[in-house]
Amino acid sequence: MTYDLYLGDRMYSSWSLRGWLMFEKFGIPCNTHFVGLYTGTMAQDLAPLAPARLVPSVRTPDGTVIGESLAIAETLAERHPDAGLWPADPAARATARWLCAEMTAGFSALRGDCPMQFQRVYTGFVPSEAVRADLARIETLWSHARTVSGASSGWLFGAYSLADVFYTPVAARILGYDLPVSPETRNYCEALLTEPATLDWRHKAHDIHYDPEPYAIGLAGQPWPI
Ligand SMILES: N[C@@H](CCC(=O)N[C@@H](CS)C(=O)NCC(=O)O)C(=O)O
Description:
By secondary structure, this protein is α+β, with helices and mostly antiparallel strands. The chain has two domains: 3-79, 3-Layer(aba) Sandwich (Glutaredoxin); 90-204, Up-down Bundle (Glutathione S-transferase Yfyf (Class Pi), Chain A, domain 2). Helix content is 47%, strand content 8%. The chain has nine helices and six strands, in the order βαβαββαααβααααβ. The protein is globular. The chain binds glutathione.
């Protein structure tokens, strides 16, 4: 018996990417099932995991269903204490939990105005004041994480952790809409989007084509750099 992980789509589903990275980056085996997020079959495809209704959703090897990302993250960390999902240091771990929780509950302007997509890097996108405020808050949180962890560059808490998982789709929004951030922030975003597992996810995202394209905003763009 192993985990069953239900996901939506690689091109647009930010939560699916997080759910997949939680397994992939920490060496936790799972059977992956893609549901029809944009084809009208989602409820039917997720029926085996009722009452879960969003992706990612998970069924553990002993049959427990978990239908929310933070709950999945905490359960995996509890069940795989040696896998390093959270930072080992208690202060870093508490801070990482805070960053993940604030991400889950916040940044509504960025999430609303800049849906995650790996179709292109938009040119000419003009962020609203609310999006700029979200970006400032994200940079503040990342800077605080680095103060706590002492990691001046690279992953937020030194070793790759759930904090990096939760902010990978945020980084995809920053790069995908060419949003104004500091060079240090951009470097971190590029590191997140080019680490091998995420790169593999991005490449496979192009296997499915949608017509019409979800979330299209009518701006020109360039292909995502590798
Ligand atoms: N708070 C949830 C959010 C999950 C979520 O919103 N997933 C989206 C896909 S990115 C979804 O399932 N959307 C389908 C719908 O809203 O019907 C979590 O943390 O897992």
